[in-house]
Fold this protein.
Amino acid sequence: MGGTCTAVIGLQWGDEGKGKIVDVLAGGHDAVVRFNGGANAGHSVVVGNERYALHLVPSGILFPGVKAVVGNGVVVDPEVLLEEIDGLEARGVDTSGLIISNRAHVVMPYHKLEDAVREDAAGKGGAAIGTTRRGIGPAYADKAQRLTAVRVGDLLNQEVLRRKVEIACCSKAPIVGDSSAEVDPVKVCERMLGCGRRLGERVQDTTYLLHDMLAEGGRLLFEGANATLLDVDHGTYPFVTASSTTVLGIGAGTGVPDRCIGAVLGVAKAYSTRVGAGPMPTEQDNEIGNWIRERGNEYGTTTGRPRRVGWIDLVALRYAVMINGVTHLCVTLLDVLSGLDELRLCTGYRYRGQVTERFVPDAAELSEVEPIYETMPGFSGEITNVRRFDELPAQAQAYLKRISAFVRAPIGYVSVGPERSQIIAVEPIGVEQEPIA
Ligand code: GDP
Ligand code: IMO
Ligand code: MG
């Protein structure tokens, strides 16, 4: 790797503050590009007193002149997307730079129902994943299955859409119930064609669009959704999402080869959170966990669910740094930990009688591990106004240095509050510009 593009990737179980980091860097790029996931993502950006929660629209939308591109690897719920566009426009945000790949797959109404039906059935056996119920898994499954899949470009072609929807509704009816409006082909087609008409000229071949931009010296910023430990291949399977969430997903999800990527920014909270089911070795289901949840406002941006909270897991983090080839670590929500007497960092696992520093990316195996902790002194006081690393409390500096040393990646940025300006650029990538408010 060594190109001029930048990737922003979550290194834990999601909600690391990717939206915030993308927002800090977007102004120095020509396009912000989503390559994976769908409306399961919830990326918050805070500008002054305004808070934006973005699900399908890339976080670069807040910068006029920066294109916001939804790549072919994303699964698009067109109704959610249009609602999001309307919401942004109503708040005065210009969305004319938003472009959607004609080859992105569509999350159809029956996919959301199928997600819920499967989760409810699995839940009876205590095996639910705890999905966001946004239809993500069923949409990607149909993409791989091919016969019934609908792509965004199909929403502009009545005949093609009708044919696909008729077959799809037949195959989905036994799963979601015959009488449901979500498997009535006429109703489904009408809804989806209406969306297609509204999306209209935003639907394009984004692979050529991005390569044309690159040919003219443009810089692209790839905005990861979900996160590394939720990756379908490299995460805590089966408690994962259905897409390639790491830097490795960018090529397939956009058509841009990885040699175009220079900086890989891995975003990690100063502690751990997880939403939904699945093992989390450092989880603190206790007073400490509750204290961090309330201070960090750890409730889901997409579903409002309380997030599970725990100490930072450096074994998992080093694995995520390795998979992504992280060049710059971005540690976020450091301010939340201010006030704790001591901080714990997981630096090893006890697994089947052995001590290991290797992550085990399989849910059944990971649920067996017992974390081994190192303890460091905590820090206190208000750090949200700090803008230089050496002005942080000495204990906070030591904590960050320990994280960086263990995971073997330099710290690029430290985030000390949700707002755009609350950032310490330790080793900046060199494209920061005066943000356009
Ligand atoms: P994403 O999915 O990775 O974009 O993260 P989310 O937006 O879902 O969750 C991160 C939450 O933390 C949001 O509410 C952000 O506004 C907030 N946030 C981001 N960075 C910081 C920070 O450094 N400090 C604090 N206190 N909040 C932050
Ligand atoms: P951002 O981009 C946190 C989790 C869900 C569930 C599992 C599968 O905001 O970081 P899915 O609906 O994708 O089939 O759910 O993955 N999950 C996320 N958790 N942040 C996300 O996105 C997530 N996207 C999916 O909670 O456990
Ligand atoms: Mg989120």
